[in-house]
Q: What sequence folds into this?
DNA sequence: ACCTGAACACCGTTCAAGT
DNA sequence: ACCTGAACACCGTTCAAGT
């Protein structure tokens, strides 16, 4: 059942004067939802707010989506599509895997409020299948069998999605413009009792140094090192 | 519900004895909150529900916590404490790291509704410091310097927490009834078009086979393999 | 000192009625 | 065919008033 949604556009002849700017559609609703999320965060996304932004009654949206949750699912598909659309495999299987992981993370950080809401429930739809096909293709190319490829696929996807949404959640918590809280985080670790936590204390000054970009690259590097070591086909 | 075991009805002197059973306290409120979360999931945790369960007005709770968010933070500390309390380092540094990761995951899966709510905002408090001290101690023992230990610490903690909460989120989504949706997940992947997604199709039957326990162990194994390879001190 | 009850400003969803 | 408006059953938080 693909695409029973978009209501019939009005006939060309009826187009006199201004088109009704408030004609609803699934796409227009998703656009508005994304705009609210990006500007004001997850809590601002309510049906009433959406109706106001769209110039409609807040219940009109329910003609296009079965409920708020359905809107979230539609946004989830957009998020994963943003990561996968236009991606081309790299020169090596490892480059392909690294590149796709970076794109997923980038999409999550570009829409952190959305990532927080939907990352653990990516809808199994077209964009996700395309991503899966690319990842599994790279793993088969690396020399893994079907069973192993399935395993590594799940590991890489789980870690990438989990870390990306985790990071998005921190970004949201710190507030859109608050750099201050990250300093607080570091300060608390630096203030932990050296008597009670000697190992922690000896390392604390380094804890806040690595930035998030480096951190993600580092973890993916670790993971792919292990995958490569097991593949028997170093790139 | 009547309470036949309740203390003697209030008399003139009762006030000087033990407090009435419905006396509020932070601990009693956290107990009640945890009970609601475990029985009925994240959405059931409301101040009104908490008040009802505690036999109090729903606003009385606000005398002990500054708001609902403050209750969540209190629960977060309990979650991490459950993972860390009583843990002893293993015979090797790798065993220590594996053991602690398993405990964090187990605590998250024991309280999935809680893990979903708080995993990305673990409060930097006592239990977390104890965990950090253990992990960093193991990494120093593995031969890493302070800077490297800080890096690996963050990687291991991020992946463990992110994957555990991610998994908890899936467990919650599948609903307490379970099982049904995991089959649906598998079915959708099996039904993906083999023409459009040939690599995916060739591997799909294996995708749903690995259970979640194996999956977590597998990822931690990959990560620790890479850490061990870089340590220059195989266990 | 601790708790209650009412009030306030919100939610998502349903549904009869309008156009 | 599409949308509105009222209604329903909820939220978290504040605060004057009770005991």
A:
């Amino acid at each position: 059942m693909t695409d029973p949604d978009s209501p019939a556009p009005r006939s060309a002849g009826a187009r006199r004067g201004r088109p009704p700017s408030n004609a609803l559609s699934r796409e227009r609703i998703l656009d508005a939802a994304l705009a609210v999320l990006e500007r004001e965060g997850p809590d601002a996304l309510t049906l009433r707010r959406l109706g106001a932004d769209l110039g409609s009654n807040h219940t009109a949206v329910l003609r296009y989506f079965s409920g708020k949750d359905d809107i979230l699912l539609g946004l989830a598909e957009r998020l994963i599509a943003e990561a996968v659309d236009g991606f081309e495999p790299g020169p090596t299987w490892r480059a392909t895997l690294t590149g796709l992981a970076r794109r997923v993370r980038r999409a999550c950080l570009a829409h952190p409020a959305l990532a927080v809401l939907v990352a653990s429930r990516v809808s199994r739809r077209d964009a996700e299948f395309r991503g899966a096909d690319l990842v599994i293709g790279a793993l088969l190319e690396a020399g893994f069998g079907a069973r192993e490829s399935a395993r590594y696929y799940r590991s890489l996807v789980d870690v990438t999605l989990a870390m990306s949404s985790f990071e998005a959640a921190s970004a949201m918590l710190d507030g859109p413009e608050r750099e201050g809280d990250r300093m607080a985080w570091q300060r608390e670790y630096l203030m932990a009792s050296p008597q009670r936590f000697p190992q922690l204390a000896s390392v604390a000054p380094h804890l806040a140094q690595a930035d998030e970009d480096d951190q993600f690259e580092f973890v993916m590097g670790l993971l792919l090192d292990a995958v490569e070591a097991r593949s028997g086909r170093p790139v």
About this structure: Residues 38 and 111 of chain B are 6 Å apart (CA to CA). Chain B touches chain A through 57 residues (CB under 8 Å). Residues 46-48, 58-59, 62, 67-68 of chain B lie near DNA strand D (CB under 10 Å from a C1'). The two ends of chain B are 59 Å apart (CA to CA).
